[in-house]
Amino acid sequence: MQNEILTATGITKRYANHTALKSVSLGVPRQSIYGLLGPNGAGKTTFIRIVNQILAMDEGTLTWNNENLSLGHIYRIGYLPEERGLYKKMKVGEQALYLAQLKGLSRMEATRRLKWWFERFDIMSWWNRKVEELSKGMQQKVQFVVTVIHEPELLIFDEPFSGFDPINVNILKEEILKLREKGATIIFSTHNMASVEELCDHIALLNRSEKILEGRVTDIKSTYRNNAYIIHYDGMESSLRPLLHPSYQILEENLEEKLKTVHIRIPKGTGPNDLINDLLPHITIHGFSEMLPTMNEIFISKVNEFSTMSR
Ligand code: ADP
C-alpha cells in the first residue's frame, strides 16, 4: 500500500512445537501510532523481533515503503525491547555515547544529541555516575533516549510504560507524540489500554497467533458501537425507568446530584431520536451523547469471541 511504511503479508513463524504467528497480515500507516495488542503469548514479541530481523519468519513478506525489508533498514528503526538492560558498572554518559555510536552517529554528533536529551529528561547530573546508581525509572529514560537518538523513521516500543511512575509515563507519552509530529511512525505493544485510548490512532489485535482485528481506532469504535447513550438532565427526582419502554436498558444512573446522569442502551432498530422523544416531555436534557465502547471493552469481547469459537 502506498501510504504504509511497513506492510506484513502472510507472516508465519513456527517454533519447535508452537506456531507463534499464523499468516498474519497487517499494514502500518506512515506517521501513525500503531498499537500492537493482544493477551500474553499472542505473538506480539515474535512479530516485533521479525520486523527487527532478530528472528527469521518461515513464510510471508515484509515490505518497507514497498521494498523488501532488509538488513539495510535496521538503522532506520529504533527498537526498545521489553527486557531492558544497560551495563551496570559502566558510566551512564559513556555507555549512552557508545550505544549512540553503534547506531551510526559520530562521537561529536552523539554527544551533542545526548546532551540535549539528558537536559530534557533532567538526568544531566547523572552523566558521570554508574548505571547501577540510577533508579529503574532513570535507567528506562536512558534507554528511551538511546532508542530514539539516531532519529529513526520507525520506532518500536515493547511495553514502553512498564516500570515508569505516572509522572514519567506522561513525560514519555508527550515525547512519543512529539516524535510522531516530527515525522516518525511508532509501533508499540502494550497491555496498558488507557495508553492505547490516549495515543493510538491504529491498532492490530493478535490472539493465539492470529490477527483478529485491525484498523483505525475511530472506525473500530464506530463498528462496535452498541446503542448506548449518556444523558445529563434535571426535572425528575426518581428513576427514569417508568418513562422508558421495557426493552430499553438502564445501565447506570446517578440521581444524587442536581444534574442527574443516566446511561441507557436502546434496542437495535431504534435510534437516539426515539429515546429523546420518550424523555422530552418529562425532563430537561442538558447533555446527550453516544457512549462509544472503550478499546478495553472491544479487546475483551473480541478475545472472548475467538476463545469461544475455538473451543
Ligand atoms: P507475546 O509477546 O504476545 O506475549 P510471544 O511472541 O512472546 O507473545 O510468544 C508467542 C508464543 O510463542 C508463546 O506461546 C511463547 O511461549 C512462544 N515462544 C516464544 N518464543 C519462543 C521460543 N524461542 N521457542 C519456543 N516457543 C516460543
What is the number of strand segments?
A: 14
Order of strands, widest sheet: 6-7-8-3-9-10
Which runs of at least 5 residues are low in confidence (pLDDT < 50)? none
The small-molecule ligands in this entry are: adenosine-5'-diphosphate
So what's the overall shape? Answer: globular
Instruction: Figure out the total of helices.
Output: 9
Characterize the quaternary organization of these chains: single chain
Mean pLDDT: 93
Class from helix and strand fractions: alpha/beta
Order of helices and strands: EEEHEEEHHHEHEHEEHEEEHEH
Share of β-strand residues = 25-35%
Termini separation? 35 Å
Task: Please describe the biggest sheet, giving its number of strands, its sense, and whether it closes into a barrel.
Answer: 6 strands, mixed
Fraction of residues in helix: 25-40%
Global Rg: 24 Å
Q: Would you give an account of this structure?
A:
It is a single chain. With 311 residues, the chain is α/β, with parallel strands linked by helices. The protein has 9 helices and 14 strands. The strands form 3 sheets. A 6-stranded mixed beta sheet has the order 6-7-8-3-9-10, with helices on both faces. It has a 4-stranded antiparallel beta sheet with strand order 2-1-4-5, with helices on one face. The protein has a 4-stranded antiparallel beta sheet with strand order 12-13-11-14, with no helix packed on it. α5 links the parallel β7 and β8. The radius of gyration is 24 Å and the shape is globular. The two termini are 35 Å apart. The mean pLDDT is 93. The structure holds adenosine-5'-diphosphate. Adenosine-5'-diphosphate (ADP) binds next to β2 and α1. The site of adenosine-5'-diphosphate has 12 residues, from β2 and α1.
